[in-house]
Amino acid sequence: GPVFALCVAGAGDRRTLGRWIAGLQEANPVLGRTPVVFRLRGDGDGERGPPET
């Protein structure tokens, strides 16, 4: 499907990504009703885990 935003966070954890999406929602409240998928990397092994929703 379409990708509306992309974020590459240095920390890459749920907390950082949560703050990022919360900031976007301040100016775009409709994002609160939009499905969001985060794909987080594992423990530096280069493998991707399942998408986080």
TrEMBL record:
GO terms for biological process: cell surface receptor protein serine/threonine kinase signaling pathway; innate immune response. InterPro entries: ECIST_C, ECSIT. Pfam families: ECSIT_C. It comes from Halcyon senegalensis. This is ECSIT protein. Residues 1-40 form the ECSIT C-terminal domain. One of its GO terms (cellular component) is mitochondrion. It comes from the Eukaryota.
